[in-house]
Design brief:
By secondary structure, this protein is of the alpha+beta class. The protein has helices at about 5-20, 40-50, 50-60, 70-75, 80-90, 100-105, 110-115, 135-140, 155-160, 175-190, 195-210, 210-215, 265-280, and strands at about 120-125, 130-135, 230-235, 235-250, 255-260.
C-alpha cells in the first residue's frame, strides 16, 4: 500500500462529490419522496460498477486502498473533471493516473449527454479512435469496442491489422474508409507533433501494414467520415445509419449518435437492436 493513501481526505472528497451530484446529472429520475442530498451511495456504486458496501467504506474512511482501475471507475462514475480526477488519484495514494487510465477518462460534459441517451445507439470516442463508452445498442450494432487493449484500442489500428474490424461495413466502402483513417491520423500527427501518441501509432502501422504505408506516402489530408454509414450486421443484415457527431475539443473526444430514417427498413432494424441490446446479439462481435 502506498504510504500517501489518505483515507480520511479520500472519504471526505467522495462524500462532497456524491452529494453535489443530482439524479438529473446522471440520467436518473428524481422521485417525489427523495430527501437525500445528491445521489445515494448505492446509486453512485452502480455508476462506478462496485458494491454499495465497498463505496460506503471508502466514503467512511475505513476501506482498503482502491486499485488504480477502481479509482478510474470512481472518477467516471462521479463525473469528475480532469483536475478532480487527478486529485482523486493523489488522495488514493497514486502520484497520478497511468497514461492509459487518463486517456480513458470521459469528458464530464459528454458523460452528461450520454446519460440521457441510454435508450439510443451512441458511443464516446477518444482522439485516436478509442471507444471509451458505448450504450447497449451501440454494442449490439458495432460489437464491444471497449474491450481492446494496447494499440488495438485505436479503431485505426484495428482497421489495418484485424480483418474483423471491416466486416460490419459494406466492402465497396473499405477503400475510402482506409484513406479517411490515414488522413485523420496524419492530421493528428501534424497537430500533436512528432513525439505524440499519434506519431507513435503512425510509425507502428507503417511497419505493420503495407496498405497503411502506401496510403501514408500519399500525404492526403482533409478527408472526413461520411454522415451516412452503410453497415452489414451479422444478424439483421444490411442497414444504413446516420452518424451525428458532437465534439469536445478540450479533450479531443467525440460523441457519436447513430440514427436511421423513420419508416425505412434500416430504422426497423436499428430499433430492434435498441430493444434487444447485447443479449440477443452477443455472438459475432468485433
Amino acid at each position: 500500500m502506498d504510504r500517501t493513501f489518505d483515507r480520511t481526505s479520500l472519504g471526505a472528497f467522495l462524500h462532497t462529490r456524491r452529494t453535489a451530484l443530482q439524479p438529473e446529472d446522471v440520467g436518473l429520475v428524481r422521485g417525489e419522496r427523495r430527501r437525500a442530498a445528491g445521489l445515494r451511495r448505492e446509486e453512485v456504486a452502480d455508476l462506478c460498477t462496485m458494491s454499495a458496501d465497498y463505496f460506503a467504506r471508502l466514503e467512511r474512511g475505513d476501506g482498503p486502498q482502491p486499485s488504480e482501475q477502481m479509482v478510474a471507475a470512481i472518477a467516471r462514475g462521479l463525473r469528475l473533471t480532469p483536475d478532480e480526477r487527478d486529485h482523486l488519484f493523489l488522495l488514493a495514494g497514486y502520484r497520478g493516473a497511468r497514461r492509459d487510465l487518463r486517456s480513458r477518462h470521459v469528458s464530464p460534459g459528454l458523460m452528461r449527454v450520454m446519460d440521457g441517451l441510454a435508450g439510443s445507439t451512441a458511443q464516446i470516442m477518444g482522439p485516436l479512435g478509442e471507444t471509451l463508452l458505448q450504450t447497449p445498442s451501440a454494442v449490439a450494432l458495432l460489437g464491444d469496442q471497449t474491450r481492446h487493449t494496447g494499440d488495438a484500442r485505436s479503431a485505426t489500428y484495428r482497421w489495418f491489422t484485424d480483418p474483423a474490424a471491416r466486416v460490419r461495413y459494406v466492402a465497396d466502402d473499405h477503400p475510402l474508409h482506409s484513406r479517411t483513417n490515414v488522413a485523420l491520423l496524419r492530421a493528428a500527427v501534424t497537430r500533436d507533433g512528432p513525439d505524440s501518441e499519434a506519431a507513435d501509432l503512425a510509425e507502428t502501422l507503417a511497419r505493420t501494414s503495407a496498405e497503411f504505408a502506401e496510403l501514408w506516402e500519399r500525404h492526403e489530408v482533409g478527408l472526413r467520415w461520411s454522415d451516412t454509414k452503410r453497415m452489414v450486421h451479422p444478424q439483421v443484415g444490411r442497414l444504413d445509419v446516420y452518424c451525428q457527431l458532437l465534439n469536445e475539443p478540450d479533450q479531443g473526444q467525440s460523441l457519436l449518435i447513430f440514427t436511421a430514417t423513420p419508416g425505412t427498413e434500416s430504422h426497423e432494424k436499428l430499433a430492434l437492436l435498441t430493444v434487444l441490446g447485447t443479449d440477443q446479439f452477443a455472438a459475432g462481435v468485433e
